[in-house]
Amino acid sequence: MRSFLRPRVLVAALATLTLAGCGFSGNQAQPAQSTAAADTSQRIVVDNFRAPIANWAVESDAAYILSLSGCLETLTKYDQAEGKVVPFLATEWKQTSPLDWDFSIRQDVSFQDGSALTADSVVAALNHVLDAKVPARAFNRTMISSVTALDATTVRVSTPAENPLVPYRLASVNTGILAPAAYKDAEVNPFGHCTGPFTPVSEKAKQSLTLDRNENYWGGDVQLAGAEIRFITNGATRAAQVQTGEADISLSIPVASLAALKSAPGVTVLGADSPRTATLYMNNGRAPLDNVDVRKAIRDSLDLDALAASVYEGAALPATGPFAPSEPWAGEGQEKHKQDLDEARKLLASAGYTADRPLEIIAIVERAEFADVAAVIQENLKNIGIPLSIQAKEYASAEPDVMAGNYDMLLSQRNRLIDIADPIGFLTADYTCKGTYNLSHFCDGEYDRIIAEAATTIDANERYKLYAEAGRILKDKAVNAWLVNEQATDAVRTNVLSYVQDPLSRYVLTANTAKSAS
């Protein structure tokens, strides 16, 4: 257990619980309003669905934990309500040449260890990410050629080709800025080295992270004395803890727990459309799934309407492909998926498929409903003569084999805007030949050409047309089976004040997050 102990603009006398939209059409729960006064001596407990990995390496998914905890901050920030990139640790930026972007660093900001935020410290932090052995999906040498300090307050980010999305990439949590002292002995130590409203003080490995108020936060007074982030992979446990009051906020509530929580006193359930799709990943590089007809047969065997109605109890919609139909880059003609067992059997016959071994599907336990989803898929595939075994695993334990290609199928979900608030990050990392998160082990030259063109296309509408074209390739080749488009669902105690739901789970604790005494 680590332990590092160390010693705002408006103090909110009254605060209300608010919910921000995620930028897509859809229904959102309206939270109850509260006029209780914030008690600045209060602490808060947040149940998160995943534990950090890679020893807090910022280039890894551990950055999401540090960001939602109110520790890690970035140069820019994507404002979900406004639908645009806004200043954060940088106050402004401009494209000074086709290959160069200059960012002005916010003055009078200190890291939690007392050292000053400077252009040099920003450069050191960003170059650490660029030089990581496992590159960050949103910020790596394929799209960033260099980061340099022009003077004491200006950082230049240069790209190998014109890149209109650099400010979006600097909003990725993987570009979070830590103090120079955080990068020592080939490890990353965020304790006391962030700039955010909360500073980590102790950790129970794979269990929890404890944080205290940053008394010197540049953004103003922090309304909570501190917080504990608990890593609870079991969704039913997260739901139970917020219902009993053991937790104040629980993220990613499973569908099976919604009815009980919606009727529970003292709890508000928040739901927002999110660019997240439950997906049956298929290993395109391993037989028999390296045959497109086998993948199409699996896709055609699935009854997505029944899946959405039964397991998801109507709280999710059947997917039509890699994008939700409401997204501006989905393109036209998004046809509803229809189960076709006869066509599936014909495809298997044409592929010469023989059931010489059961295929294995890994169901990620962080998503409680995936056990039931796997059972439905198992029954669907049985109808076309594909035997299937199910294995439940935590994502952290499954990822090494999945990334190495040592798996058949994986049930997981991926948020298309989690790396950057534009699908280019998702489409590049997940499906290009050299993609750093290519779980499907898919490689197609025409697809890569389209994504490369999109990455340099300034006009958003033209870029979206290219995304739609790329999506059609993924669908036509049945790279994966996209199952249902999900909602982001959080549960919050009614004495939590000024909580703004983030469907991307990047920002949970902020300086304004508060709690009343009752």
Topology overview:
Elements: E1 2-3, E2 43-48, H1 62-68, E3 76-79, E4 84-87, E5 90-97, E6 100-105, H2 119-130, E7 146-151, E8 154-158, H3 166-169, E9 183-184, E10 187-188, E11 198-204, E12 208-213, E13 226-231, H4 235-244, E14 249-250, H5 258-262, E15 267-282, H6 292-301, H7 304-310, E16 317-318, H8 341-351, E17 359-364, H9 370-382, E18 388-393, H10 395-404, E19 409-415, H11 424-431, H12 445-455, H13 460-476, E20 480-493, E21 496-497, E22 514-515
Helix pairs in contact: 6-8, 11-12, 12-13
The tally of strands reads 22
Largest sheet descriptor: 12 strands, mixed
Query: Which residue ranges are poorly predicted, with pLDDT under 50 across at least 5 consecutive positions?
Result: 1-33
**Tally of helical runs:** 13
Beta-strand residue fraction: 15-25%
* Average pLDDT, all residues: 90
State the helicity in percent bands: 10-25%
Structural class label: alpha+beta
Shape: globular
Radius of gyration: 23 Å
Query: CA-to-CA gap between the ends?
Result: 32 Å
Give an account of the 3D structure:
A hairpin with a 2-residue loop joins strand 9 and strand 10 (187-188). Strands 1, 2, 11, 12, 13, 14, 15, 16, 17, 18, 19 and 20 form a twelve-stranded mixed β-sheet that branches. This protein has a four-stranded antiparallel β-sheet with strand order 5-6-8-7, covered by helices on one side. A two-stranded antiparallel ribbon has the order 3-4. The longest helix is centred in the last third of the chain and has 17 residues, at 460-476. The protein has 518 residues and is α+β, with helices and mostly antiparallel strands. It has helices spanning 62-68, 119-130, 166-169, 235-244, 258-262, 292-301, 304-310, 341-351, 370-382, 395-404, 424-431, 445-455, 460-476, and strands spanning 2-3, 43-48, 76-79, 84-87, 90-97, 100-105, 146-151, 154-158, 183-184, 187-188, 198-204, 208-213, 226-231, 249-250, 267-282, 317-318, 359-364, 388-393, 409-415, 480-493, 496-497, 514-515. It is globular, with a radius of gyration of 23 Å. The protein contains 13 helices and 22 strands. Residues 1-33 have low confidence and may be disordered.
